């Protein structure tokens, strides 16, 4: 079970499918926060006010299609994971176009009996990306602390030679940490 809390926006118009998908997500994610919408306007509102970690969308909706939903999501947050869960994609070209348009994947509704196994790896990928972002955010915070310390040391320099030497040694030590951190960034 995924223990990282996930905010999921589900774009679906079939009440029966919504209930089945919600039940499946709750088997996969310990603390999901799920909002359900079925059109572009409501999707836009939830993208702004709910800020999901992932969007799961049907392709064929009453007032729009899944590519329009995907485009809306990408206009607001281009990096947001997007998964199609649909009965419409029976055309290989259309399926390929959804991936080329930026969807992370798609699951056919004809495989709803296997939804848990098909959705699990996609949601794990979402969690992994969230963890990577958090790790990078901490890494950047550490670099900012080192830079702030350098500025503080520079501000504390005075005319006493021995104290200046100590401060310069501290600056060099922090700069070497900063350079190592940047080399680690290139390996990611």
Automatic annotation (TrEMBL):
<feature type="domain" description="Response regulatory">
    <location>
        <begin position="7"/>
        <end position="124"/>
    </location>
</feature>
<protein>
    <submittedName>
        <fullName>Response regulator</fullName>
    </submittedName>
</protein>
<feature type="coiled-coil region">
    <location>
        <begin position="154"/>
        <end position="181"/>
    </location>
</feature>
<dbReference type="InterPro" id="IPR052048">
    <property type="entry name" value="ST_Response_Regulator"/>
</dbReference>
<dbReference type="InterPro" id="IPR011006">
    <property type="entry name" value="CheY-like_superfamily"/>
</dbReference>
<dbReference type="InterPro" id="IPR001789">
    <property type="entry name" value="Sig_transdc_resp-reg_receiver"/>
</dbReference>
<dbReference type="Pfam" id="PF00072">
    <property type="entry name" value="Response_reg"/>
</dbReference>
<keyword id="KW-0175">Coiled coil</keyword>
<keyword id="KW-0597">Phosphoprotein</keyword>
<feature type="modified residue" description="4-aspartylphosphate">
    <location>
        <position position="58"/>
    </location>
</feature>
